[in-house]
Amino acid sequence: MFSNHVVLSGGDFCMGSNRHYPEERPERTASVAEFAIDVFPVCNSDFAAFIDATRYITQAERQGHSHVFQMTQGPVPLNNPDLWWKAEQGACWHNPRPGQELPADFDQHPVVHIALEDAKAYAAWAGGRLPTEAEWEFAARGGLGNTEFAWGDEFAPAGKRMAQVWQGAFPWYFAPGGTPATVAVGQFPANGYGLHDMIGNVWEWTQTAFTAPSACFSCSPQQDAHTLFTLKGGSHLCAAEYCLRYRPAARIGVAGASSTSHIGFRCVSGR
Q1: What are 64-81's pLDDT values in tens digits?
Q2: Residues of 152-171 as b/e, b for ≥16 C-beta within 10 angstroms?
Q3: Engineered SS bond to 199: which of 91, 141, 163, 239, CB 3.0-4.6 Å?
């Protein structure tokens, strides 16, 4: 771990947002100490090294299935994630979409179908830990302050895509030339701290318990609302009309036992 990392000095920053979803409020001053953070989300090649060294078996492998996103045949109500999520037998980190061929650059895709305990096990093996929500958001902002996105206030400056998020009409149409799935890390520009994929591609686990004015299940399969942890960053499934959560301030609460095709993680070290 940390052969490719950035050390951030920490400090005070504006956390949260009053402009979007209730669970992000209020905007407030937060503080983090110095910490190191991975430049990229943990990739399949990284996770494979962990598996080879430890013979660890992920939760999805133990239970025999995990949730996989399925595009619908046409427009559907956007208040029922169960319409586009399916628990598929055999879905796991090395077989993320059963029955489909792995992409040629699979090793460099962020690992998915990772439950919280799996992420923590990898982090401990690698000599680190999962970030707190505050550390993650501080890192994602890249020193810019309270901007909308990790790169500024404009979603696509000069028409340039800056992250792997949904392009089209969710969950049934994806614009030609793209893919409604993960992509290899590092394809989009780094933020001001030199960090890639802080926004989009995969949601990332934090170690912070989720609290909010109301439960937020919109981005994941329906689940038990009792032991939720905070995910940050949005994923390739986030769309403006459905889940405009590809922003540093955005957050959702997911049960620690959740395992899906759009959740990954990265590691940090420090106090």
Answers
A1: 999 999 999 999 999 999
A2: eeebeeeeeebbbbbbeebb
A3: 163
